[in-house]
Automatic annotation (TrEMBL):
Biological processes annotated in GO: cellular response to heat
The keyword Translocase appears for this protein: no
Protein name, per record: Heat shock protein 15
SUPFAM superfamilies in the record: Alpha-L RNA-binding motif (SSF55174)
Entry keywords, A to Z: DNA-binding, RNA-binding
Residue segments, region Disordered: 106-133
Keyword RNA-binding recorded: yes
Ranges of residues in domain RNA-binding S4: 11-74
Amino acid sequence: MAQKPEEDDKVRLDKWLWAARFYKTRALAKAAIESGKVHCRGERCKPGKEPRLGDEFVLRTGFDERTVVVKALSVVRRGAPEAQALYEETAQSVARREQAAALRKAGALGVSTDGRPSKKQRRQLHQLHDSAG
């Protein structure tokens, strides 16, 4: 009797990340892993790595960095509630993401300008660059 795919112990990391809905396609998951945005125990991973229950992964997507612990394995992509049962995000990770989101919303991370510099401001910038170099 054959095992169901979701009960399979041999799952590729890129397939698990896709099934857990961190990435829209397996190709995007594989590209993120290869570009060093997925770490396990402080080291970069390979797409063929087999995640095990209890493994802790650090995922960077956009501005966010999540630390998740593997709770279940699946090779099938299902609905969001079922996908969220595959992992658990650590409390520190949730707090960091919420704090970063609040800072972004407040505009603390971006530089706000009034648009293009005036002719006078541009001359001052050029003078500053010339004197520094």
